[in-house]
Amino acid sequence: MTIVEPAQRKQRAQIKVRTFRTDRWWLAPALTFAGLLSFLIYGFWAIFDKSYFADPYIAPFASPCLATSCPEGARFLGLAPFGDWYGLPPGLLILGLPGGFRLTCYYYRKSYYRSFWVSPPACAVAEPHGKYSGETRLPLILNNIHRYFFYGAILIGAVLTYDAVLALIHKPQGIGTWILVINVVLIAGYTLGCHSCRHITAGRLNHFSRHPLRYRMWTLVSKLNAKHQQLAWASMFSVMIADFYVRLVAKGVLTFPFS
Amino acid sequence: MERHEYDVVVIGAGGAGLRAAIEARQQGKRTAIVCKSLFGKAHTVMAEGGAAAAMGNVNSDDNWMVHFRDTMRGGKFLNNWRMAELHAKEAPDRVYELEAWGALFDRTKDGKISQRNFGGHEYPRLAHVGDRTGLEMIRTLQQRVVALQQEDYKVHGDYEAYLKVFSECTVTRLLQDEGGSIAGAFAYWRETGKYICFDAPAVVLATGGIGKSYVVTSNSWEYTGDGHALALLAGAKLINMEFIQFHPTGMVWPPSVRGILVTESVRGDGGVLRNAAGERFMFNYIPDVFKDKYATSEEEADRWYTDQGNNRRPPELLPRDEVARAINAEVKAGRGSPQGGVFLDVSTRLPATEIIKRLPSMHHQFKELADVDITREPMQVGPTCHYVMGGVEVDADSGAASVPGLFAAGEVSGGMHGSNRLGGNSLSDLLVFGRRAGAGAAAYVSGLAARPTAVGIEAAEIEAEAPLGRTGGENPYEVHHELQRTMNDLVGIIRRASEIEEALDAIQKLKERAEHTGAQGSRVYNPGWHLAIDLRNMLLVSECVARAALKRRESRGGHTRDDFPEMSPQWRRRLLVCSLEGAGGIAVEEKIQPDMRPDLLALFERSELTKYLTEEELS
Amino acid sequence: MGYKAKFRVWRGEGGEGRLEDFTVEVNEGEVVLDVIHRLQATQAPDLAVRWNCKAGKCGSCSMEINGRPRLGCMTRMSTFTEDETVTVTPMRTFPVIKDLVTDVSFNYQKAREIPSFTPPSDVRPGEYRMQQIDVERSQEFRKCIECFMCNNVCHVIRDHEDNKPAFAGPRFLMRIAELDMHPYDVADRKDAAQEEHGLGYCNITKCCTEVCPEHIKITDNALIPMKERVVDRKYDPLVWLGNKIFRR
Q1: Among the listed residues B507, B491, B509, the one whose alpha carbon sits nearest the alpha carbon of residue B499
Q2: Residue B136: which pLDDT band, with cuts at 50, 70 and 90?
Q3: Percentage with pLDDT > 70 across chain A
Q4: For residues A108 and A33, is the Cβ–Cβ distance under 8 A?
Q5: Which residues of A touch C193 (CB under 8 A)?
């Protein structure tokens, strides 16, 4: 004898205002937008700029340099595996790895979904799109291959480290040396703090206690990971600055001693 | 009217209610859980310290007998000894069971459930998760309910075939048949204001306590003594209602959070109490019965945290009633903190990171609500109404009340904790007796020849409807507030006859005013109406507390009489039993406590027993 | 010490309603919920608000204060200036019952769709042995007080009602992560997380983490690690290949 009355039709509070937030919620996405845009514009220019080598410095955007078109000292380990048929800017060859790494990075995803795609622009502010499928289908589902870009980014990070070491052992050292070193440290911090790296070290395990070494690595990565956003921005600007600095030296704009 | 048929209706979805419902469903009974709040919000989430269970994981000397002794001592030997025995014996299994249902307790080094120290417990005994054990428990039980519903879905294609939660639904009357046996419950949906009727031969009360009759309380709005009142109205009896535990450490500032709990683990983990002069005053308040169990110097007390084998415990860890009275006395003597409490300091005792790790929610609570960083400065704390030891008189083994078909478990039942509950004993109480009450109800239903037929549904409806019809009546919020003030000031932590009599007069007047409270607005989610209905329960329960407090002419546990400061062995044998009189008043009768079983009595040294028992009982 | 504050509270039933203005006394140390209660006691006795513990432990009094999802009991009045108008509205993602009270049954329905903790059949109660470091991750998620503000703020369903059937929301994706990381859980949850509970809808914009009153790192510690676990299963060609070979 169970009698249940039908539930009345329910709807959300009919509020037309997009948000009641009174703070400057638009500021963060606007700054992010400006920051990312400046990186894109700079990157586009830098790829096609030819003055990327000023011995012993090589601009990070052009490293590793793998074609015969690279000046001899700029070639990675002195090799030029791509030979002389390759005439385009050397940076285009490797751009995909760090670029893809940042494009699929969990932090950058947040930042461009918010600032470029305004989905959502800020918390509790309605987004303008009628439909939303997130990362369930192409192309955004491709963001799931982040870990492969991570492997690639490790390689690039190693190359940049090698470049920095070359600059370090070169006498005399200049300001550029230290700019490259700082850049490498920040890039390493960003790369190793990646969520995929955290997963690979031990995040995928359910029994940390059975893998003490991996657990230690995981705790280190987790510490970096907590600063992933800050490191993402710091390393983005440091790579831009380092790259620009080397080009200025190469162009002869900066000519002071120990530059 | 919406009407449902069940085998067992459980009122309350806290720890006891959920455990009872799980048990009834596991025994194949169609079970309804009716609760005033959303599912998973019950007051159990507020429990912080842990669940006391003598698993012996940290100190292997611990066992049920030690736990039993501690419980009896804490309750000043007034406990229902059979309940204390069952509780001590079964608590470990109930905790293990939670783990098998997904609970994640903090661990020892060898991977077992870790246990922490607490006031009145001889060994580290509280299974815990940081300081949010209650949340862990309620979530685990909630998820166990869901697991059972998923099983039912696989078999019957309906999640709610055997176990259904009616949330935000308030029971206003128990329904009985012509003979007085339980036949169901009458309730209203808070959401719509519509009435709903349950036909069920067994009802388990698990409604918690009565704290909302006091101004300064750690209890949420739900604690209006519903189960106590429903039981009285159905003809059951309440015992030990004079014993109310004032938790020694509630927040005292800011005013809006006054009373919110500061967990006892602060003291268990090294926190100390100081007065305005910076003195660790608890050393001055160790009562005779505990003299040889507690440290007498700060040095010994401090050594205890690292070496418990060779030192006695710090007096901050005395049972709650002792600590609450001591704080009360310090404040009265003018040695209190600026905002009327005393200082509880953990900042000078533990490194900041350790405090945040062990007491995360306390750190959070003080930071967000009082702007106090407990890793840098002391807290200010004072007593707050926390728990009622009294409740429905039940059979220890089955949780059955005197009314056929009525069961009770958890705070709403009485006897288990005697005159004072030890911290950590309530979470294990919920589990042990929740299960027993669920099983008791299931067995009762199985033994019935025919289902009872409820009478009195119309009367229940008229009663619930009344405040809505009285537009322009008395404001229920004002009546409630006056009741809270009355109880807080006149039947609070320290009592005397003249004040209690004054309180009884005030309660009579408030009863009349409550009859005229009206509620504006529609019946949809109308808090004014809900409060007007709850007032009946709070007034009934308050009267029980006051009448019993007036009658008990001694001081014991959660009942302190200024005019009778001594504990009397004669009074230990006597329980005060409240029941409803014809005209809606409360009658209090004395009842002799049954003698403790010899094998249990033998667990104590005779020298200790002489402090509590009469010559006659000892011989 | 007290002052008169300006409050705008959304009032209405079944979706229809409007913002109502109140002027109400505020005393030192009070929180928004205290002020709502004062409104109930003095000006609007039938003003509906859901609350319980008033200490940030039960997660009942979720509402939107000046547009941001917050617990009424944990939002101190001192965070506003005295001349500021405080706007209080119900959670937007769920149907409204009355005033500030919403129907959160969506969440309970989702909770039910996630298979429960599944221990191995040969471990009996009392035999569980787990190291602290192995339970800590799941313990963080079990701090959840189910205020449902993460599900409320998540734009996947806040701005797209039509996604509700396919998306469990941060709260319950975190529940899946909690169980998946449990040292004794033997159920396989990765495919279901993606296919049935909509983990792929999450675009990790982190609003759930921003509003969590328990400061659980929902995105970094639950959702992203769960996404990575799903990648292992579904999108990583090497792992996929490895599994194929090992199974044979």
Answers
A1: B491
A2: very high
A3: 97
A4: no
A5: none
- DSSP for A73-117, please give it: GGBGGG--TTTTT--S-THHHHTHHHHHHHHT-HHHHHHHHHHTS
Consecutive H or E run containing C226:
helix C224-230
- What does the angle CA B64 – CA B68 – CA B72 come to, to the nearest 5 degrees? 175
Per-residue model confidence (pLDDT) at position B473: 81
User: Rounded to whole angstroms, how far apart are CA atoms B282 and C141?
Assistant: 38
User: Residue C246: exposed, middle, or buried by beta-carbon count in 10 A (0-12, 13-18, 19+)?
Assistant: exposed
Say whether B475 and C45 touch across the interface (CB within 8 A): yes
- Work out the mean pLDDT of chain B and round it to a whole number: 95
| B183 Cα distance to chain centroid | 27
For residue B530, indicate whether it is catalytic.
no
For chain B, which residues lie within 8 Å of any Cβ of chain A, measuring from their own Cβ? Answer: 2-5, 192, 194, 199
What would the mean pLDDT of B516-527 be, rounded to a whole number? 88
Give the β-pairing of C3-13 and C85-89: parallel
Contact A51, A74 (CB under 8 A): no
Chains that touch C (3 or more CB pairs under 8 A): A, B
Q: Tell me the per-residue pLDDT of B50-88, one tens digit each, with 9 for 90 and over.
A: 999 999 999 999 999 999 999 999 999 999 999 999 999
In this model, does residue B381 exceed pLDDT 60? yes
Alpha carbons C13 and C98: distance in angstroms, whole number: 4
Residue B412 has pLDDT above 70, yes or no: yes
Gyration radius (Cα) of chain B, Å? 23
Question: pLDDT at position A1, please?
Answer: 43
What pTM was computed for the model?
Answer: 0.94
Q: How far is CA B143 from CA A155, B140, B460, B483, C108, in A?
A: 46, 5, 34, 38, 11
Residue B305, CB-side half-sphere exposure with 13 Å CA sphere: 17
Of A132, A206, A228, the CB nearest to C181: A206
Give me the pLDDT at residue A4, please: 46
Match 């036949």 to its residue by tokens: B183
Please tell me the distance from the alpha carbon of residue A181 to that of residue A26, in angstroms, as a whole number: 35
DSSP state of C131: -
* Helix C105-113 with B133-156: angle, nearest 10 deg: 70
User: Do the Cβ atoms of C15 and A126 come within 8 Å?
Assistant: no
Cross-chain residue pair B194–A4, CB shorter than 8 Å: no
A256 shares contact with chain C (CB less than 8 Å): no
Q: Which residues is C222 bridged to in the sheet?
A: none
pLDDT at A8 over 70: no
Mark which residues 193-252 of A lie under 8 Å from C by CB: 195-196, 198-199, 203-204, 206-209, 215, 225-226, 228
- For residue B221, what is the nearest residue in chain C, using CA coordinates? C52
Q: Which residue has the tokens 């309620």?
A: B138
Alpha helices in chain A (DSSP H): 27-48, 91-94, 96-103, 106-115, 146-169, 175-192, 195-198, 212-226, 228-250
8 A C-beta contact, residue B316 and residue B322: no
**Residue B483: pLDDT over 80:** yes
Which pLDDT score, from 0 to 100, does residue A67 have?
Answer: 84
Q: Which chain A residues touch B3 with a CB distance below 8 Å?
A: 1-3
Partner-chain contact A2 B199, CB within 8 Å: no
Note whether B175 and B197 are within 8 A (CB): yes
Residue in B closest to A5 by C-alpha: B2
Q: Is B121 a catalytic residue?
A: no
Q: What are the tens digits of pLDDT across the range A25-57?
A: 999 999 999 999 999 999 999 999 989 998 889
Q: Are strands C85-89 and B586-592 parallel, antiparallel or unpaired?
A: unpaired
**Residue B84 pLDDT:** 98
pLDDT of A112 above 80: yes
* Per-residue pLDDT reduced to its tens digit, B464-481: 999 998 877 889 999 999
